[in-house]
Amino acid sequence: MENLGAPIVSFEGFDAARPAGRIVATSGGFDPIHPGHISSMQASAGLGDVVVAIVNGDAFLRAKKGRSFQDLETRCLIVSAVRWVDYVVPFEIDGDLTVREALRRLRPDVFTKGGDRVDAPTIPEWDICQELGIEVVTGVGADKQWSSSWFLDAWSQATP
Prior knowledge:
Layout: H1 11-17, E1 23-28, H2 35-45, E2 50-56, H3 58-65, H4 72-80, E3 87-91, H5 100-106, E4 110-112, H6 126-132, E5 135-137, H7 148-157
Parallel strand pairs: 1-2, 1-4, 2-3, 4-5
């Protein structure tokens, strides 16, 4: 399927295109994407000039939830269509449930987290952000009203 939204790029692709301005990175599994994710991306756009969405890979979702609902390519295509996203970077390191290495490679000015990710104990990337001078902004987007896990649990328990 042809991508009609923001470019989906590798780290090398982002480096080659690296835009000028304040770069804001946000991350998630986005499986499935919901209004909380969208509000976080929208709020992230207000913190800089370029929004990079790091999309966690299928191994991350298997480790976190037991399986993925949508594959990485599908999730990247959906996230790329969100109007506040300028670049999408698929990311996966087997056995690593963080995006520390993605942040090390991208070197954004800001890293945003929404929902219940609010401090060093709840944001595993906090240490790398401190090391690299990346500003961490928490509570980005709407209050936690949605959860991909909640949707999938309700869907799997529903009777047809």
